[in-house]
Amino acid sequence: MHEIITDIAKLLKDSTTLLETEIALETFFQNVIQELLQSAFKQVDLELVHEYKQQGFEIDSVPCRTLQLSFGIVEIIRHRMKKAGEKSVIPFDKAIGLKPRIRQSPLVEMKVAQLASDGAYRKAADAINLLTNFSLSHTSIHTITQKIGGAIQEWTEEIPLQDETPQKDKKKVPVLFIEGDGLMLTKGREKKRPEIHRVQFHEGVEYKGKQKRPVLKNSQLFESTVSSEEAFKRTSLWLEKTYDIRETIVISNSDGGSGYGKDRFHQIIGQCQRHEHFRDTYHVNEKIKQRMHFDKEMEKKTRAAVRAYDHDLVDVCLTTAESRINFNDEKASEYLEGLNKLKAYLHRNWDSLKPMTLRDLPVSKGLGICESNHRPYSYRMKRQGRGFSAKGAGNVAAIISARKNGTYLKALTDRIPDFLAELQPEFKGAVRAVLKKGRHTPSIGVKMGKIANYSSSSSPMGQLVKLFK
């Protein structure tokens, strides 16, 4: 400890600015941590070698292995042991759970995938190179991210199937919201643009903090780049695993796109107290705006009539708009066709357009969250010169969803063998042996003292004092 303090003092003495001091200290502390860990590993390795020698093994070689840990690069010098008739073994690697040709620790891979799910692979590489004393290429980060994302997708589908919770012990809630929507990505290497199909459920909205910030209660996100059917399947498995909704009012919402109709929601819900489906208000207004752009006044009135849920007034607005079309206009037929399509759309979805306030529901908020929650996905994977294959986008999206759901670490430790590797008993035994050898009683030095004499030098005590002088 005194040597470390001395070295720090020398660094402080030789530095002229705070920046120079901090740069020097950063490198110094990284080196100290690495040297200490290397020394500890070396002692453990020697204990393991001793145990293997007692079993008839001999030292074959002393290879060096470089491992990238979250706090830096560590070079591990350990022994390879051999025995006649048996395959050679490296006791340290076996005891600590290190597989051949693995350079990054599980924690490094976990953090790398997190970085890559928030930004481009090259940006993640820049961040690692800037904030750590080791580097990773963007191709290595891509490989790690795809491995972890694929494992999370498999875990998401398998875990609900292994659940054996009795129906009576599952969660019961008065209201459950389910929404679905698709997010089209930028075209990548494939001819068809990949699409992220998303389904999300939650138990409502609660307000937290002094500013009463709205937060979704127990929100869970599921996605697929294969099809909306697969996204709904994953959602269905987790709904069944988590809830007993036989006495629950289920409220669903979508824009009515292909694969997101009311029937698709009804299939995954099953038996419930009541199912109310809504057509997303934003998309309804966009549809009206698109079809009635030629008549702004009637467009506004039509939107107001839909909000009021007045079917007769909607018909009046559409008829009025039709009568105001100038048939001498070259686009008159286009306007008329748009009105007919809008009329059919509103008639087809009329039941789903009924406002929440008119449906006798115990809640008044909680809809429209799926599209607003596209941001973590769209920010990562849309535009900015980024292109994804369907498989690659699915793996990145799976990491984003797992992080949002709070299942990221659980999925990794359950699914990826490297995250499950346990320290073997022989490793812990070697560590105990190192600790025993390292125990010592610190020196307290020479104790100084004297005999107090509060009487004359001729007294017995005074005579005793003279003898020790």
Structure, explained:
With 469 residues, this protein is of the alpha+beta class. Among the domains are: 2-98, no CATH class; 165-387, no CATH class. 51% of the residues lie in helices and 14% in strands. The chain has helices at 2-14, 18-54, 91-96, 106-118, 121-131, 138-158, 228-242, 262-269, 281-291, 296-307, 311-323, 332-348, 369-372, 375-381, 390-405, 408-415, 417-420, 425-438, 460-468, and strands spanning 58-61, 64-69, 72-77, 80-83, 86-89, 175-184, 195-202, 205-208, 213-216, 220-224, 249-254, 274-279. The protein has a 5-stranded mixed beta sheet with strand order 10-7-6-11-12. A 3-stranded antiparallel beta sheet has the order 1-4-5, covered by helices on one side. The protein has a two-stranded antiparallel sheet with strand order 2-3. It is elongated.
